[in-house]
Predict the structure.
Amino acid sequence: MNASLPTPFDLAVGDLPVPSDERSYRRTQLASWLYGRGARSFDEMTDLAASWRAELATHFRVDPFERVERFPSADDSVRYLLTLPDGQRTEAVYMPYADRKTVCVSSMVGCPAGCAFCATGALGFGRNLKRGEIVGQLLAVAWGEGFAPREIRNVVLMGMGEALLNYDAAVGAIRTMIDPRALDMSPRRVTLSTVGLPSRIRRLATEGLPLVLAVSLHAPDEETRRRIIPTAHAAPIVEIVSSLHDWQAAGGRRVTIEYTMLDGVNDSLAQARDLAALLEGLRAHVNLIPFNPWSGSGFRSSPRRRIDAFEAAVAHAGVSVSVRFSRGRDAGGACGQLSLQGAAGNPTSNASPRP
Ligand code: SF4
């Protein structure tokens, strides 16, 4: 297989190359093999003409990854360490629930935002992922877990990277996720997480995508926020909140505010009240996330009692709030832990397992 070839996931279904007869039908047929049945080679697509399959194999590879390593957690979530054709690596996390299959995907190798509490930020920026490398993470998880790709009903773009800095690839990947001929997901079950880039949030509001927007705020004041997110000076908090009002004015849904609870840094009752005041008039839900430790971070999670008091203060001010415990901590797959660990955890395979 030629590692430099693109994958079909780099293209919208409407742009897949098909024979000139019955184009629409042929595209649906090819998409059904890729996204419905999870085919991993063109050879498997036995009801496509042999000449078309040969043509496709000349121009595309199906699997976007050179190597797939699978790290299961005791809570049934699974971290996927994915090696790209150029040797760079990224990660995805599969989280099974009783009523749904959720996958957390990355938009980059590493991340340029450099959040101080995040192991990915400590890696620095590798490169942007292509559209097909973002969508391909869903395929890799489906192949690895042995179910059809369309069984994935929830996606969160909360893995490595700042998705809005890889705008075209991230939005293109979301369009593939919600295309009825591709992964056929409800946009309401796609969450895009951002550190808060006002101009990109306003641009996203024009895309007509009713997805869930999650903003990593982590502090209600500039000084604390810049300590946690060194690149935060580029976008003052008031400007981020203003862009969220614009998002909702343009038809955007309730936003999620992500707030990692760091002991003695951002967890006082005064900060809880300031946070609630900042969000006044905005349809928002605050997720309080106990910090997930990683070696060398220099932070500790706020103790449970303080998290509960913070939650109560935010709720008392009339803002919707809950505490969210991350999954996959023991496999290095929880929020803020993704750091390409290869030695920790317990990989069950060093090659893409087949269903
Ligand atoms: S929290 Fe998100 S935006 Fe911040 S460094 Fe980590 S991956 Fe990047």
Notes: The chain has two domains: 8-59, 67-331. The chain has a mean pLDDT of 91. Residues 131-145 form the longest helix (15 residues).
